[in-house]
Amino acid sequence: MRLKDKIALVTGAGGGIGSVTAKLFAQEGAMVILSDISEEGCKKVLKEIVGKGGKADMVLADVTKEQDIINMFNFVKEKYKRLDILANIAGGDFENNVGVTDITYERMSYNIDANLKSCILCCREAAKIMTEQQYGKIVNMASLVHRGSPMQFTYSAAKGGVFAITRSLAMALGMFNINVNSIGPALIEVDIIKNTLGPEMWEALKEDTASRYPLGRVGQPIDVAYCALFLASDEASFITGQLIEVSGGSRL
Ligand SMILES: NC(=O)c1ccc[n+]([C@@H]2O[C@H](COP(=O)([O-])OP(=O)(O)OC[C@H]3O[C@@H](n4cnc5c(N)ncnc54)[C@H](O)[C@@H]3O)[C@@H](O)[C@H]2O)c1
Asked: Fewer C-beta within 10 Å: the chain N or C terminus?
């Protein structure tokens, strides 16, 4: 077991990538604290993990709210006394396919709040615990569009920021034995995208996208989860400040 008895907090744990990552961490022996804005999503994953003999707990938080984040970390500290792994997975694109002249202040702000400020604040709170215990692994969910995207202006800016803060934190926290890395997935097959597009548009997008990726398929949540598992494990203890693109070779 690669995460035996580690205490891991996973945000966005009710979602496509977060739920699979949380289940994989539990399968590898971690005590996983599931967090999401969605109670239903968290409860479903908690039930699955516990049903398979794994260890899990949950704490609800809206990561666009600073006080929710503080409360979430207080919950972890008071109940578990330590935090070995933080996987910042909550997020999403709330201004997808919007032209540059149609960017709205509200959607832009939400994208930056949900994807970037949330990541910075969760890292800040995790650092308070991890520096004290002189151990920690932080995995931040960026995106392949950290490189830029003409269809995802504010989201790509936020995810580019996630990579930048990952590097800055890696520089500052290395001396405390804390690794900070990020993942940049390309298109990953999750319900939120499929449901938003509908079956026909999804199949067309999937086929078109797959044909442009060298590996000939879009990603699955487990592809990202395995990368998160590696970065959260001690196998990655000499890796920090990196962004690993889980992208089927896209945009090489
Ligand atoms: N699916 C992809 O193609 C893809 C590609 C690159 C990056 N990502 C990133 O991966 C992460 C997971 O996305 P996903 O594809 O699994 O989507 P998802 O919508 O299934 O998962 C996102 C989860 O985050 C939660 N969430 C959203 N806003 C929140 C908030 N304010 N507070 C707390 N929780 C909140 C949602 O309830 C959901 O459970 C996101 O950060 C996303 O930007 C996804």
From this structure: C
38 within ligand 1 shell (Cβ under 6 A): yes
Yes or no: say if 15 and 30 are a contact pair by the CB < 8 Å rule. no
**Domain architecture of the chain: domains with CATH:** 7-187+220-246 (3.40.50.720)
Torsion of CA 222, 225, 230, 233, to 10 degrees: -130
Select from 252, 234, 243 the least CA-distant residue to 168: 243
In angstroms, what is the span from residue 17 Cα to ligand 1's centroid?
7
Q: Which residue's C-alpha comes closest to atom 39 of ligand 1?
A: 15
- For the purposes of burial, counting CB atoms within 10 Å of the CB of 197, is it exposed (0-12), middle (13-18) or buried (19 or more)? middle
- For the Cβ of 190 lying below 6 angstroms from any atom of ligand 1, the answer is yes
Amino acid identity at 18: G
pTM of the model: 0.99
What digits encode the pLDDT tens for the residues 92-102?
999 999 999 99
Q: Which tens digit of pLDDT belongs to each residue from 130-186? A: 999 999 999 999 999 999 999 999 999 999 999 999 999 999 999 999 999 999 999
